[in-house]
Amino acid sequence: MQPLCGAGFDAGTNAARIADRDAHRHSEERRLGHCRAGDSALKSAPAGADTVWAQPAASAVGPGEDEIAQLAELLNRAAAVTLLCGSGCATAATPQRHDDVVALADALAAPVVHALRRKEHLEWDNPFDVGMTGLIGCSSGYHAMLSCDTLVMLGTDFPYRHFYPARARAVQMDRRPEALGRRTRLDRALVGDVRSTIKALLPRLSGAKDRRFLDAAKRHYAAARAGLDDLAIPRPGDKRIHPQ
């Protein structure tokens, strides 16, 4: 826990500086944070204090050209690629940039499996989506990962190790180095934000992929969704309140 008072600072001034510093850090890391103000929360603001905050511009972090070339070579050789997409895809999958993730899936003929935290960014208008995996996922997402020969993890720290494929090659892209290799063994690890890495990678992909693995995953998803949709339809004569 960061102390709020130190030599030469009154509590209000030091609290304001710590809050400003932490706001910049959490903005860059794109995550929520909090600052424990203790008794400083009840003190008057220091003289001259204001609420102006200089929000940092979003930075782009990407791997080197040699790393991109090696990754492209690995993916061009792969026969059955699956994308596992997490919260790091938020900047790549906004309405204006949604096509970057879809374009990568198209170039690799890869089904897209998403974690819960990025369902709202990746599921809509995505012909390659095959649902979630994990404890509240569906069978199609689970099997798309289990059956692939190459798993590409995009900005995800998906924690459930039993849902990762045991024999597939694994590639992970994340702007946070500490996340790389935390959940499964990796064949390639790249430090970079998802959008910058995809932009650099796409021109190097051959695009000539057999799409049978993708088509099978999409059929599985259609069947799984049909079963889930059927559960959401009330049965005639059943007077119980339906949870959906």
Q: What report would you give on this structure?
A:
- With 244 residues, the protein is an alpha/beta fold.
- It folds into two domains: 9-57, no CATH class; 65-230, TPP-binding domain (Rossmann fold), CATH 3.40.50.
- It has seven helices and six strands.
- The protein has helices at 11-29, 65-77, 98-108, 119-122, 139-146, 194-201, 212-231, and strands at 81-85, 112-114, 129-132, 150-154, 169-174, 188-191.
- The protein has a six-stranded parallel beta sheet with strand order 3-2-1-4-5-6, with helices on both faces.
- The radius of gyration is 22 Å and the shape is globular.
Average pLDDT across residues? 82
CATH superfamily of the largest domain: TPP-binding domain
CATH C-level category of the largest domain: Alpha Beta
Helix content: 25-40%
Number of domains: 2
Terminal CA distance: 43 Å
Order of H and E elements: HHEHEHEHEEEHH
> What is the number of strand segments?
6
How many individual helices? 7
Name the strands of the widest sheet in spatial order: 3-2-1-4-5-6
- Secondary structural class: alpha/beta
